[in-house]
Amino acid sequence: MTVDFQTWMRAVWTSIMEPTDSARKVIAMDLPRDALWTGLALVAVLNVILVVLLQMISPAPVAFQEQAFAVSPFGFAGIIGVFLVLFVFGIYYAGQIMGGEGTLQGSLAILVWFQSISLTLEAIQVVLVLIIPAIGAIFGLLSLGALIWCFLNFINVLHGFKNLGKSLVAIFLALMGTALLAGIALAILGIGPAGGVA
To answer: Counting Cβ atoms within 10 Å, is residue 73 exposed (0-12), middle (13-18) or buried (19+)?
Structure first.
């Protein structure tokens, strides 16, 4: 199936405006797990590319830029990759703790699609920053709000929660657990700000 730019943007827009229906459709697709893990690796790499581009074109303070580039692109890709993999399990197990009914494969599908939406909005922000930096900054804030709204609804559908409050708690638990385990894993791998992998 071929997806053109217009179709892709329509899907992203629908996910933002109707996140509940979009989440149901993504889970119902029942994509192979191998394909989903490959998709997660791809969005991790694209994430690094877009973040580096934003750092290069954004008028950030010199000290901030030096801190941001203390980790090499490969090290940064490792950090994002480890975090995303652990976050998939975090979303699944946090939902189970809260009484949710989501599956690990569903959690993976939801995160891959959410990251795809996020990357699309980041790409638009890069273009806007190049044209009018102030508009790009405003778009970034609006995008953040839209992404939070999307993810809350995605998790709500994934685990069959009846309210967004439980989704918020599940996301918080997933983030805390992921941050803790990612810190340990990256320390073991020797990836970090002090001396990122070259």
So the answer is: middle
CA–CA dist 124, 197 (Å, integer):
29
Q: What are the phi and psi torsion angles at 160 (to 5°)? A: 70, 30
Q: State the Rg of the chain over Cα.
A: 17
pLDDT, one tens digit per residue, over 168-184 is: 999 999 999 999 998 88
pTM over 0.90: no
Dist CA 95 CA 162 (whole Å): 13
- CB count within 10 Å of CB 9 equals 12
d(CA 189, CA 77): 13
CA 172 to each of CA 40, 87, 91, 114: distance values in angstroms, whole numbers, following the listed order: 21, 11, 9, 17
Helix ranges, 58-198 (H): 62-68, 73-97, 104-131, 133-159, 164-189
Exposure b/e, 43-54, CB count within 10 A at least 16 = b: bbebbbebbebb
Quick one: pLDDT band at residue 196, thresholds 50, 70, 90? very low
Whether 16 contacts 117, CB under 8 Å? yes
Determine the residue type at 45. Answer: V
Retrieve residue 101's tokens: 């009914």
